[in-house]
Amino acid sequence: MVGLKSTLKALFCGALALAAVSAAPVAEVPNVAVTAEFPNAIAGLTPDLISGESNKLKVTFRNSGKTDLKVNLIVGTVAESYDFENVIRNLTAYRYGTTLKADATLILPYTIKMEHASREVGLTLLADVVDSSKNHFSVVVFNSTVNFTEPAQSWIDLQLIFLYVLIAGIFVGVGLFIKDLMAPEVKTVKKAPSMTPEEREAALEKMKVLDEDWIPEHHKKSPRVVKRR
Ligand SMILES: *[C@@H]1O[C@H](CO)[C@@H](O)[C@H](O)[C@H]1NC(C)=O
Ligand SMILES: *[C@@H]1O[C@H](CO)[C@@H](O)[C@H](O)[C@H]1NC(C)=O
Ligand SMILES: *[C@@H]1O[C@H](CO)[C@@H](O)[C@H](O)[C@H]1NC(C)=O
């Protein structure tokens, strides 16, 4: 197996050579166009890379040629924005080995995840494209300045506050429920004073019709008698 490191080295040297000498290529350069977009971006804007989080990219390959190609790898570097050759970090190389058919489009995902201070850097992503004769070509996927930013702390704080309020609400709810379970009598007793003096009078009037003697004492003042009216 050919080492990834040497492949990457060859790829970057290849990219430089490609930029320097475009004349007299050994093999015909594949007719492939590549675009990279951040799915979460506002149209037409390159969003900031969020330090420590997974920044997803959608890479679209368009093969306008007559032969099938293969997308082998996508590699990347984060460099100083004033000098793209002053590499700060080599990004994770993604190996695909996916066929890019003639006159077809292929979409591949790429994720950038690294910790970096909030400032401008130069981001370069290169794809290693292989033709049917096993010639490797380095195709620029992305090459521009981007800003690193910290994750939105205030938003996380807001979410935490919301969580605390929610938990507090649950505790209050559970507390009320337990209180209800433990004191059901209190609730029924509380209903009794809702009887107005008029109602009480009417209830007593009705009771007079009956032979009061056989009614148990504690039932005489029951509000249920009122409801039977
Ligand atoms: C990135 O990779 C290249 C090629 O393998 C290597 O020469 C260079 O030292 C690496 N840079 C960093 C910052 O790791
Ligand atoms: C990327 O852009 C920088 C700055 O514009 C330039 O110096 C460099 O040659 C470009 N790299 C590639 C591979 O196109
Ligand atoms: C990066 O941020 C600086 C300062 O906020 C801004 O001037 C610059 O345009 C940004 N660069 C990019 C590529 O968004």
From TrEMBL:
Q: How does it sit in the membrane?
A: Single-pass type I membrane protein
Give the species: Dissophora globulifera
Where found? Answer: Endoplasmic reticulum membrane
Question: What Pfam families is this protein classified in?
Answer: TRAP_alpha
Family under the similarity heading: Belongs to the IRC22 family.
Respond yes or no to whether keyword Signal is given for this record. Answer: yes
InterPro entries, A to Z: TRAP_alpha
What is the residue range of the signal peptide feature? 1-23
Record keywords: Endoplasmic reticulum, Membrane, Signal, Transmembrane, Transmembrane helix
Bilayer-crossing regions: 158-178
The entry's function note states:
Is probably involved in a pathway contributing to genomic integrity.
The record's Gene Ontology cellular component field reads: endoplasmic reticulum membrane
From the Swiss-Prot or TrEMBL record, give the protein name. Translocon-associated protein subunit alpha
